[in-house]
């Protein structure tokens, strides 16, 4: 029997479709994914609440982490992309960033080892929320007709090309954006999750077959390296999701093209 | 609608979203946004704003203090320069005054010397005059003594006084 024959790789449905803890069979089925989403909410709230209560002049601990995050989002996302007018969106973007980041980080938390963002059930509603937000902001800031005109008609383009470009812009702005946002986060987190499972399953198989113990360090080292890499990917994907949200809302506020 | 959600919740395709996950994640996210906006974020926002204002205030205070120190330094330098100038002026003035005093003292000393010399000459003249008178009396006495010895008789010395006086006056006049 070959080494790979001994690998007990679970079926894809088993690592993504988690059994409900309660309310099983109903539309409100509560499983590991929903638990991580709820925990991400609770952790984000506790982080912000604790940081807000400390009010130390020189921040340390939780206050330092939250302030560094808020400062990073303020300077690197809001002010850079949206300008000072975008500061009203700071709480929304901070909440979004920390929510996505903590959901992502559950990928490397023992026992959980599952990012809820590796499920379309979490990323799609988030992307749709962003989609609704930037459309509503655009309509409120520019007016219905003006917003849609600015969104789908690129300025300075010859009339003949508009026949081609307008449908593309409609497709890009109003259909592709939310799905790209959702699928990018979902795909990256799912790929990372499957990679970690693959190397964990391989390590387990090596360990089970004592003859292959000499090879065990290879997949185990890879598993360790990938765990570190996935922490980086978690932060990167949270940043990308937040910065794209800021770009879309910023465009709606200013009037794109 | 419920049947659709139920169907989604039991979806066999692992990629498709399950209704429970959609509902709980939407609920979680909206609850998070609400409590962040109302409860958790304002204190942090206020704290960051207060700190920024404090840092700005501290920087401005430091800038003001630096400007004041700069002004004080400039003022002190001006005072120092003025003091140096004043001391130079006082020294020049003292030097000039000393020179005037010195010149005055020299002049007064010279005048005094001249006066002392004059007084000494006058004293010498008076002494010489006195000696001449004494000598003249002695000469008259000697001449009369000599005449008595030659004549072998006592002479009336008072009767010769005008003659002796006239002789001495003539000899004095001829000696000048």
Helix/strand/pairing class of chain B, anyone? mainly alpha
DSSP helical segment count of chain B: 3
- Integer tally of domains of chain A: 1
Beta-strand segment tally of chain A: 0
Low-confidence stretches of chain A: none
Report the helical percentage of chain B.
Answer: over 70%
Shape of chain B: rod-shaped
SSE ordering of chain B: HHH
- Content of β-strand of chain A: under 5%
Beta strand count of chain B = 0
Note the quaternary state here: heterodimer
* Largest interface: pair, residues per side: A-B, 47 and 40 residues
How does this model look, in words?
The complex is a heterodimer of chains A (257) and B (176). By secondary structure, chain A is mainly alpha-helical. Chain A has 8 helices and no strands. In chain A, helix 4 (90-105) packs antiparallel against helix 8 (217-254), helix 5 packs antiparallel against helix 7 (159-208) and helix 5 (120-142) packs parallel to helix 8 (217-254). The mean pLDDT of chain A is 86. Chain B is mostly helical and 176 residues long. Chain B has one domain (20-175). Helix content of chain B is 89%, strand content 0%. Chain B contains 3 helices and no strands. Chain B is rod-shaped and about 190 Å long. The model of chain B is unreliable at 1-10 (pLDDT under 50). At the A-B interface, helix 1, helix 2, helix 3, helix 4 and helix 5 of A face helix 1 and helix 2 of B.
List the keywords.
heterodimer; A: 257 residues; mainly alpha; 8 helices; 72% helix; B: 176 residues; rod-shaped
Topology (elements, then pairings):
The complex is a heterodimer of chains A (257) and B (176).
Chain A: H1 12-16, H2 32-54, H3 61-82, H4 90-105, H5 120-142, H6 144-152, H7 159-208, H8 217-254
Helix pairs in contact in A: 2-3, 2-4, 3-4, 3-8, 4-8, 5-6, 5-7, 5-8, 7-8
Chain B: H1 2-9, H2 19-151, H3 161-175
């Amino acid at each position: 029997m070959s080494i790979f024959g001994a690998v007990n790789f679970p079926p894809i449905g088993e690592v993504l479709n988690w059994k409900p803890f309660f309310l099983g069979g109903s539309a409100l089925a509560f499983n590991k994914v929903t638990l991580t989403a709820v925990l991400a909410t609770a952790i984000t709230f506790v982080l912000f609440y604790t940081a807000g209560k400390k009010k130390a002049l020189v921040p340390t601990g939780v206050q330092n982490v939250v302030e560094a995050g808020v400062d990073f989002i303020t300077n690197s996302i809001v002010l850079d992309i949206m300008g000072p007018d975008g500061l009203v969106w700071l709480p929304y973007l901070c909440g979004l960033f920390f929510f996505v980041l903590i959901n992502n980080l559950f990928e490397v938390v023992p026992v959980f080892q599952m990012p809820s963002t590796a499920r379309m059930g979490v990323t799609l509603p988030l992307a749709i929320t962003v989609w609704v937000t930037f459309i509503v902001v655009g309509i409120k800031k520019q007016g219905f007709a003006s917003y849609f005109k600015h969104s789908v008609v690129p300025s300075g383009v010859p009339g003949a090309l508009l026949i081609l470009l307008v449908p593309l812009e409609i497709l890009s702005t109003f259909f592709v954006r939310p799905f790209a946002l959702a699928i990018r986060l979902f795909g990256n987190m799912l790929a990372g999750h499957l990679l970690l499972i693959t190397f964990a399953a391989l390590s387990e198989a090596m360990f089970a077959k004592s003859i292959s113990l000499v090879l065990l360090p290879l997949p185990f080292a890879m598993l360790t390296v990938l765990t570190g890499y996935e922490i980086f990917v978690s932060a990167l994907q949270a940043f990308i999701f937040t910065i794209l949200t800021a770009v879309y809302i910023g465009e709606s506020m200013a009037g794109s093209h | 609608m419920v049947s659709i959600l139920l169907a989604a919740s039991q979806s066999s395709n692992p990629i498709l979203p399950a209704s429970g996950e959609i509902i709980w994640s939407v609920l979680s996210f909206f609850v998070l946004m609400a409590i962040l906006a109302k409860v958790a974020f304002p204190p942090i926002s206020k704290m960051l704003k207060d700190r920024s204002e404090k840092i700005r205030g501290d920087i401005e205070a430091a800038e003001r203090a630096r400007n004041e120190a700069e002004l004080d330094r400039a003022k002190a330098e001006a005072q120092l320069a003025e003091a140096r100038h004043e001391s130079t002026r006082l020294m020049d003035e003292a030097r000039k005054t000393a020179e005037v005093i010195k010149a005055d003292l020299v002049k007064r000393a010279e005048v005094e010397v001249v006066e002392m010399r004059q007084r000494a000459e006058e004293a010498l003249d008076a002494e010489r005059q006195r000696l001449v008178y004494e000598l003249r009396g002695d000469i008259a006495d000697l001449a009369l003594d000599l005449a008595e010895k030659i004549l072998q008789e006592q002479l009336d010395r008072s009767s010769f006084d005008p003659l002796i006086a006239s002789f001495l006056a003539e000899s004095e006049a001829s000696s000048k």
